[in-house]
Amino acid sequence: MSKDKPLWIDGCPYCEAFTKLNIKKLYYPHTIDEVKKSEFIIIDCPKKHQPLLIYRDHTPHVLSESWGRMLYVARKEFGQNIKLHISSEFIIDHFCAYIVK
Fold first, then answer.
1. For residue 41, what are the domain limits?
2. Is the separation of the CB atoms in 69 and 29 below 8 Å?
3. Has residue 92 been placed in a domain?
4. How many domains does the structure of the chain reveal?
5. Does the pLDDT at position 2 exceed 80?
């Protein structure tokens, strides 16, 4: 998906994080104004209360280039020893990953 034309689905809580900006704790990007333009965001998961990376498009998969950018930013924000644990336990058709230390 193009960053200019994201695929967002009404009613999806992860898509709505990008469109309605209903975010309690934002780790990345650093300002709420940047969220709509960002390829991905890192927020505090409302269910598990740990950092959760969410890809902007409504898709369960990401390209390897996007994966690399997400891992780079996550390690820059949380340290080199973190891992991304891909999770689909809450919404199966949206790519997201927990940041695990």
1. 13-100
2. no
3. yes
4. 1
5. no
